[in-house]
Amino acid sequence: MTILATEGLTKRFPRVTALDRLTVSAGTGVTGLVGANGAGKSTLIKIFLGLLPPTEGTATVLGLSPATQALEIRRAVGYMPEHDCLPPDMSATEFTVHMAQMSGLPRSTARERAADTLRHVGLYEERYRPIGGYSTGMKQRVKLAQALVHDPSLVFLDEPTNGLDPQGRDEMLALIRRIGTEFGISVVVTSHLLGELERVCDHVIVIDGGRLLRSSAIGEFTQATQSITVEVEEGQEPLAERLTSAGQRVTVAGRLLMVEAGSPATFDAVRDAVCDLDLNLVRLEQGRHRIEDVFREEVSNV
Ligand SMILES: Nc1ncnc2c1ncn2[C@@H]1O[C@H](COP(=O)(O)OP(=O)(O)OP(=O)(O)O)[C@@H](O)[C@H]1O
């Protein structure tokens, strides 16, 4: 099922073309929207939400047109904006209840939904305190809760890991994955940090300068390469020599050896050589492309 689609979508501001003839689509699940700062990610989300009109082209969300059905879209879609937009004097509970009522829920339902949603995003007793005293991580959770409180079919999360420390980032990414799987809500999540999306997305769309660089399932980004990565505590050079003389093609990269994997027998050859030389094997695995590598290659080809 197609969740969102664009056709020749262009957005020109007076000084810059933020989106340039973008044609792309995404289905259910978690979709990563990746690009450097200024690539056009927030502009694209705002067009999907009906907050900005496109200059040319069309966009649809859940089969609805932002130009004519913005109200229906807001009922079915949640939005976590990038920048801080929270009232410092209100508590998380008051704010989330208010947002639930704004989306049309009666007060008693809004209170129940707000309590459940705040618990899901990991805010407990602190939800009664004013937001002004919250950490960045807690504020990000409140922003996420208000995007989910009306039980949307799709949420747009704009840079949800911004400003978080590594632990906060991991927790937010785990939460995003749960939204996509346990809650069954489709997610579009933006990030300029390519590596982090690898862990949570089913599909990745890469844009650069408002243009589409690539759109594919995560497996295609991280598909197995034809090489085996071997890490040994020490003895890389003798191991490389042994493997080369046994007919393997080997490259040494610091502590790692990259061995071209012609057949499954390559694994046996590495195991035998490590045993013969009595080395400590730390890692032996099929190499995988990382999103960063694919992105770097494609940007340099533009
Ligand atoms: N309202 C606006 N008026 C003028 N230019 C704008 C406006 N909004 C965005 N832009 C410009 O459009 C380009 C794309 O911005 P956008 O915010 O969509 O990028 P982004 O990928 O979300 O990056 P970031 O994460 O830094 O926000 C940038 O050059 C930005 O300066």
From TrEMBL:
InterPro entries membership: AAA+_ATPase (IPR003593), ABC_transporter-like_ATP-bd (IPR003439), P-loop_NTPase (IPR027417)
Organism: Sphaerisporangium corydalis
Keywords: ATP-binding, Nucleotide-binding, Transport
SUPFAM superfamilies in UniProt: P-loop containing nucleoside triphosphate hydrolases (SSF52540)
Protein name per UniProt: ABC transporter ATP-binding protein
Domain ABC transporter: 4-234
GO MF: ATP binding
First and last residue of the signal peptide: none
Domain of life: Bacteria
Family assignment from sequence similarity: Belongs to the ABC transporter superfamily.
